[in-house]
Amino acid sequence: MERCLLGRHRLHRVDHSGHLETKSRPRRKNCVTETTLPTVSAIVVTFRSGPALKECLYALLADGDVSEIIVVNNGTTDADLDWLRNFKTPDRCRYELVSGHGNIGFAAGVNLGARHAMGERLLIINPDAVLRIGSVRKLEEALSASTSHPCLVGGKLIYPSGDEQRGARRELLTPWRAFVTFTGLYTLESMYPNFRNLHREHDEEPESPVPMPVISGALCYISTTDYTAISGFDEGYFLHVEDIDICRRVAEAGGKVIYTPLASAMHYGSTSKVSVSFVEWNKAKGLARYFRINSKGLIGRTFARASLLFFAPLLIGRSLAIRGVQHTRQAIRELGD
Predict the structure, then answer these.
(1) Do 56 and 29 meet the contact criterion of CB atoms below 8 Å apart?
(2) Mind giving me the DSSP string for 111-144?
(3) Which of 41, 101, 102, 302 has the most CB atoms lying inside 10 A of its own CB?
(4) CATH architecture of 2-165+201-267
C-alpha cells in the first residue's frame, strides 16, 4: 500500500511497513475566529470520481476548520492519481493519500482512512460533495451540544439546482418501509399514514439540529473516540446501506443521531464512472444483508431471504428510469438555451 503525505508542500512516500519519523497531531488555528475547535480529519473515499473530486478537496481546504484531509483511493485513472499525489495543502492542513489497496468498498475505505486519521473528529464526505464553508463549525456545535454517546451528526445535502437532496433525512429502515418506498406506494401516504416514505426531505425543514433516525454517509461527523467505540462502518456493506446500519448501531448503543440543516454540501451524485447495475446490485445486496441481520420473526426472516431477488431488478429499473428522466430534462433545457 502506498501512502503519500504532504506537509509544508513536500511530498513524502512511505510503504506499508514504513512509518513517518514525525507524526504529531496537526497544528491549527481556526481562520474564522480565534476559537480553537477540535482537530478535524476529513476522509474522502474515491473510486473513479472524475472532476468532482477536485471540487470536493478544494472546498475542504476553503473551510479553515478542516485540519487534515485523507483521501482513500479505491481506484482512479493514472492522470487523477498523479494529481492526487501532487495535491498541495497549506501548513495548517495535513494531507495524506492512501493508495494501492484496490477497490475495497466505501465502508472499508472509510475505516481505512479513520485508522490513518490524527484528528479528534472525523468528517466523512463523498468525493462528489462540495462542502459549504462554515459547515464543520455547525457540525461541531451540534455534536458538542449532545450529551449522548456515541453521537453521529449529519448535514444537509443539496442538488446542484439548490433543492434538498434525498437521503440526509430518513426514517429507520424496515421491510415494509422499504417495500412502500421502492415500489412508489408512498404516494398514498397522505391518505394512509402507514404508507410512509423512507425519505423525508419533503417534510418541513427544521431550523436547528434535531434527532433523526437516519442521516447520510455522504456528509457526516463523529468523534474519533465514538467511531472507534462502535467499530466504525460495517465492512460487510460494500456500497450503500452502511450509513443506515451505523445509525441503527449508534441508537442501539444508547447514543443519538442528529441532523443539522445548518451544515450542508452540494452533492452531484452519480459522478463515479461505474454502471448503474453495479451500484444498484450492491445496494440490493446491502439491503438484503441489513434485513438478514436485523429482521425478527418468520415474516421478517422470509422477507430477508427474498429481498435480494426482489430489490435488485426493482432498484436497477428505478434508477434507469430516473436517469432517463434527468437526461431528457437536461436535453430540453439545452434546446431551450
Answers:
(1) no
(2) HHHHHH--SSEEEEE-TTEEEPTTHHHHHHHHHH
(3) 41
(4) Alpha-Beta Complex (3.90)
- Rounded to a whole number of angstroms, the distance between the first and last alpha carbons of the chain is 48
Contact criterion met (CB below 8 Å) for 11 and 86: yes
Omega before 209 within 30 of 0, i.e. cis: no
The three cell numbers of residue 263 are 451544515
Which residues neighbour 327 within 8 Å (Cβ) at sequence distance 6 or greater? Answer: none
Contact at 8 Å (CB) between 72 and 98?
A: yes
pTM for the predicted model, two decimal places: 0.82
What is the residue extent of each domain of the chain? Answer: 2-165+201-267, 276-336
